[in-house]
Amino acid sequence: MNQQSIKKIAGRGIAVSMLMCIVCFGLLISGATAAETNSTTPGVQQVEVYHFHPTNGCITCTTIGNYAEELIKKSYPSELENKKIVFDHINYQDPKNADLVKKFGATGSSLMIGVTDVSGFHKEENVKVWYIVGDKGKFDTYLKDLLDKRLAGSFEE
Question: In a 3-state reduction of DSSP, which class is residue 87?
Fold first, then answer.
């Protein structure tokens, strides 16, 4: 190997090393930016869970409300304390509840979930609870998973 070949190889080595440094630096910067974005992005401010029921609700409606209340009190005591989660039983036939009934669009017995985040208020009626109320373990697992997602800002089922 002559001097010129050695210089070419060395030059390529330096160029490759510099390219690797640039790539690594770029990854470090993009990682820092992503971390900064995640840490400064505000998330969910509040999750509201309401059991809407009539004055004289059926046993299934009452059970759904009781199961939901029990799960929320057991699983989210600090979130209840700081109002990150709000839960209540709401008689949709009582005129004093008209504003809340209108806000959620409740038209009958239902378990409604409202999420307030940076983009506004999002409401949903959860109908799956009616199909799994006969299995308390399944009900609790499902609702806890769903509320964990809502608290994390996810709107997937």
Answer: strand
